[in-house]
Every structure is written in structure tokens, then in C-alpha cells.
Amino acid sequence: MKIAILTSGGDSAGMNAVVRAVVKAAILKGCEAWIVREGYEGLVRGNIDATPNAALPAAAEYTEFPPAASDIIKNLRFGDGQLLKDGTGDYASGRTLKGRYIVRVGWDDVRGWFTEGGTLIGTARSKEFRTREGRLSAAHNLIKEGIDALAVCGGDGSLTGADVFRAEWPSLVDDLRTQGKITPEQATKHAHLKIVGMVGSIDNDMSMTDLTIGAPTALHRICEAIDNINSTAASHSRAFVLEVMGRHCGWLALLAGVAGGADFLFIPEKPPSSGPWEDEMCETIHKHREVGKRKTLVIVAEGAHDIDLKPIRAEYVKDILSERLGLDTRVTTLGHTQRGGRPCAMDRILPTLQGMKAVDALLEATPETPSYMIGIQENQVTKVPLMEAVAMTKAVTAAIEARDFEKAMKLRDPEFRE
Ligand code: F6P
């Protein structure tokens, strides 16, 4: 079997560990391992340069800084030989990857990747892949390389894209054959595409898994930031409003609140209860100050809103704390510092175990079995029907939009799956 792995959507710590695990597990199981650069965009573009291994630009080209440098660096993400040594694939040292998005890799090519942040194979939010034309090109590019299985690491949108691609695959193959782009033999050989998904997202917003890859690292980053904020806050007896990421999900904010000792927090699934939340927040914080707290921390999830779905903004919270409680208040938005950087231990272990399981899932897959998502539930690496998990995830957002917050909380609760 020829297995390709791609990363898609927003990057998250641990994605490189997934790639490493899938590549190594595939090779160990006697398969060929391939990577797709730049997510689905790379799948659509394929190998523009048909020469497998164009030579590296001469060293002199690197010294032109700018204007050529940015182009060269972009195209040489892997190409300086440092990462590529002499893997069994196209990556052998000193090869440029310019114009090549689907590349065979060997064991050495991914050595040590689990310590690296972001995704070394690149990611993109591809518009092309959303069109049938784009997916036709993607199918053609995979078939040209003889690839019959795809592992995808990304958020729910990216994994849904994989399932759509798989469902559509027979008709794409049919079109390619009719258009004479592939031979009848290729069409028969590639009648089905096997796919498997792993959830790479700092938001921890996917149902039917307890943790998504990258969420533990992001949480750790937030905790470190809170520790830093706490010392300066206590010194000046100040209040801080901290905005954290998470899109529609409050997991990062909630857990950071527990781990960092927040006074009050706002998450999308459980907006502040009835009555003006400003009063409730001020009362709580006033009490905390009364019993001697020298610092105040309010965490606002980026998707936070009130019960009428009106967004709650950190700046507004700051104004309330300053005006009503007279607190010297600052806003800190952590932004992408939560997403980048080296993965914590959990974001090396989890993707490694999941990557191995993903390869097994591909080897066991048949045209009749559903597409699977690899997750973790109660400390066990699991394999669950991908679209069930996506549907349940979407149900949470729908419940929030319908202002049924009780249901949203229940859906987030792991107990719910029983
Ligand atoms: O889904 C991951 C995430 O970091 C969210 O928490 C955030 O809303 C979004 O991506 C930010 O996306 P971008 O990197 O495109 O600004």
C-alpha cells in the first residue's frame, strides 16, 4: 500500500509527530510512505515539476536576500539536506522540492520531527479543494503516484473534506478515465480510496475524542502566560483580562481557568446566567478582593457571548472592571503564541500512538467500512466513525446557535456518549 499523509487547517503542536509516526509505521508495515506538502492545496497542485529530483540552487542563490530569498526558502522547506539525509524516497539529500507537492519519504526524513512545532510539511486552507474540479485534480495527482490511502491530520472541516473526497472518489476516477487522463487499468486499481483522520486542533473541539492533538500544548502555553501575568498583576494589584483562542469551544478557557486560578471566565457553551452578567462578574470579583486577593484574572474565550449571542469582548470587560470596581485593568490577547512552539510531552505521545493506529486502520479498511477518525477516550486510543464525530461536533455549534446551552454542555460532556 502507498500511504500519503497531509496536515490541513490551522497548524497545531504535534502535527509533525503525527507525520513521523505515520511515515515510520507505514514503512514498518511494508508500505510506501508519502507526504503531501501544503495540505489539500498540495494535493490539488500535485507534482508540477515532473523531474523527480531537481538539483538544489547553487549556494550563491541563497545570498540574494532579498528578493529571491523568500521564494527559495518557501520552496526549499525541506531541501537543504539537513532534514533529508538519504531517505529511501525522493528526499535524498540536496534535492529541491520546488514544484513537487507529493513526495515519497523515508525513515530518516522524519527523524526527530516530534520535537518540532507547527507542521513542517505545511498546511493551507484550500479553496480549490472545495470545488469538484480541484478534487478531480487531487485524485489525478494521487493516482499518478499510485497512492491508494490518505491520512489527514486537521480539524473537523479538514476531516469532513477527506470523507467527501472518499465518497466522491469512484465518480472522480470515472471522470478521469473517460477524459483519458488515466488508463482503464489505473481506474480498476484505484477504484477506492482509503482514508483515516486524526484531529489536529488546539481548540479541543471535536466530539468523540477526549483530546485533540495540540490542545495540551496550547493549554500549557496559556498556563505559563497566566503565571507570568499573575506575578506582575499581584505586584501592582491589577486586574487582567486574558483572551484565549478556541473558536466555538471553551475548553482552553475553562481548563486554563482551573489551572491558572481565574476569578471569572466566559465560554461559548455556558454564557453568564440570567440578569446582567456585568453585575454578577463585579460582585464575584469584589468578594475576592474583599477577602484579600491582590490580583484579578478574567479569561474570555474568543467565541464567548452572552445568552443572546452578543459577543463578549475583552476590551468591554476591561472597561467594566475599571469603571465599576476602579481596578487598574489590562487586556492581554495571547493569539498565536498559544498555537506555535514545541509540543509538550502529551502532544508527542498522543500523535505517535494515534499515527500508528491510523496506519493499522488504513490496512484494515475495506470499501464497506466507514472512514475512521483516530481519537482517545478514557486513555485508550480509539477508532470511531469519522462522520459520527463530525455530526456530533456540529450538533454542539447548532445547540449554541439555538441558544440551547444546556444541550451544548451535555454534548461536550464525555458522559454523553454512553
Ligand atoms: O482552530 C484553531 C485556531 O487557532 C482557533 O483557535 C482560532 O480561532 C483560529 O484557528 C485562528 O485562525 P487563523 O490562524 O487563521 O487566524
From TrEMBL:
E.C. number: 2.7.1.11
Where would I find the Phosphofructokinase domain in this sequence?
2-362
Which positions does UniProt annotate for ATP binding?
Answer: G10, R125, S126, G155, D156, G157, S158
How its function is modulated: the record gives: Allosterically activated by ADP, AMP, or fructose 2,6-bisphosphate, and allosterically inhibited by ATP or citrate.
Per the entry, which co-factors are needed?
Answer: Mg(2+)
- Where substrate is bound, by residue? S201, I202, D203, R238, M245, G246, R247, E302, R330, H336, T337, Q338, R339
**Which residues are listed for Mg(2+) binding in this entry?**
D156
Keyword Kinase applies: yes
Catalysed reaction(s) here are: beta-D-fructose 6-phosphate + ATP = beta-D-fructose 1,6-bisphosphate + ADP + H(+)
Pathway given for this chain reads:
Carbohydrate degradation; glycolysis; D-glyceraldehyde 3-phosphate and glycerone phosphate from D-glucose: step 3/4
Query: What keywords does the record list, in alphabetical order?
Result: Allosteric enzyme, ATP-binding, Cytoplasm, Glycolysis, Kinase, Magnesium, Metal-binding, Nucleotide-binding, Transferase
- From the UniProt entry, list the residue stretches annotated as the region N-terminal catalytic PFK domain 1: 1-418
As for subcellular location, the record says:
Cytoplasm
Which residues does UniProt mark as catalytic?
D203
Q: How does it assemble?
A: Homotetramer.
General function of this protein: Catalyzes the phosphorylation of D-fructose 6-phosphate to fructose 1,6-bisphosphate by ATP, the first committing step of glycolysis.
Q: Which family does it belong to?
A: Belongs to the phosphofructokinase type A (PFKA) family. ATP-dependent PFK group I subfamily. Eukaryotic two domain clade "E" sub-subfamily.
Q: What is this protein called?
A: ATP-dependent 6-phosphofructokinase
User: Complete protein: which residues are present?
Assistant: 1 to 418 of 815
